[in-house]
Amino acid sequence: QSAVARNRSYPISDAAKASYAASNDNTLLPLRGSPFRKQKGFDDREALMDAGYDVTSFGATVPGRGTIPAGIVAYKDGKVTIAFHGSECTEDFTQANLIARKIDASELGVTGYVHTGFYDRYMQGREPLYYVLDDMLGRHCKTAKDVEILVTGHSLGGAVATVAAADLKNHVAPDSRLNLVTFSSPRVLDHTAAAEMEKLVNK
Question: How many CB atoms lie within 10 A of CB 4?
Fold first, then answer.
C-alpha cells in the first residue's frame, strides 16, 4: 500500500465512524414532523469514547424548534474530528435541504455562492461549535494550529460539513491541515466556490 493510499484511508475510516456517531437518539429531537430513523441510544458515539476519543456534542438554535442536536467534536492523539448528523426528521428537509436559493458565500471567506438552507443550518450552530471546539482544545492544552482537523457528515451532515470546513479553514484554523470527507452530500457550492474549496482543504 502506498503512502498516499495510507494517508487517504485513515481520514475516510475515521470520518465514517464519526458520521455514525453524530446521529441522535430520536427521543431527543423536538419534532413536529416525523423522525426517519428509529435510533435509540448512542452506541456509535460510545464506541468512539471506548476507543479513547474525548467527545462533546453541540447544538443549533433553529427558529420554531429551539435548540436541537447539531453534531459532535471529538479529540484523540492530536486530531480533532467535527461531525454533523444527517437528516433525521421531515423538518430537516423543510428547513434546510429544500431551501435551495443561493446566497453569497463571502461570510465563509469564499468567493461564489452557497446553498441557503445548508448555510443557515450551519450558522445556527456556528457559535456553539466554536465554543465546544475552543473548550476541547483548551482541555488538551492545544491550539488550532497544533492539531489536524477532520470535518465530516452524511447527507445533510455532509452538506453542513462542507460549509463548516470553509468557515473553519478561513476563520479558525488557517494554519492547520483540514480534511473534509463527506458521504452522499447534496450539492452545496457553485463552481466558483467549489474551486476555492479544492484549494483550502485536503492539502
Answer: 8
CA separation for the pair 57, 171 (Å, rounded): 21
Amino acid (1-letter code) at residue 133 = L
Strands 54-62 and 66-76: antiparallel
In this structure, how many other beta carbons lie within 10 angstroms of the beta carbon of residue 173?
Answer: 22
Contact yes or no for 176/144 (Cβ under 8 A): yes
Contact status, residue 53 vs residue 74, Cβ threshold 8 Å:
yes
Query: Residue 86 corresponds to which cell in the numbers above?
Result: 444527517
C-alpha R_g of the chain: 16
Contacts of 46 (CB under 8 A, 6+ apart): none
- Helical (H) or strand (E) element with 21: helix 3-21
Angle, helices 116-139 vs 156-171, to 10°: value is: 60
97 with 157: CB under 8 angstroms?
Answer: no
Instruction: Give mean pLDDT in consecutive 10-residue pieces for the chain, a chain of 203 residues.
Output: 46 93 77 61 91 95 81 97 84 64 90 91 95 98 96 94 96 93 92 91 72
29's grid cell? 429531537
The Cα-based distances of 60 to 63, 66, 69 in angstroms read: 10, 8, 6
- State the pTM of this model: 0.89
Burial class (CB within 10 angstroms; exposed 0-12, middle 13-18, buried 19+) of 149 = buried
If you count them, how many residues does the chain have?
Answer: 203
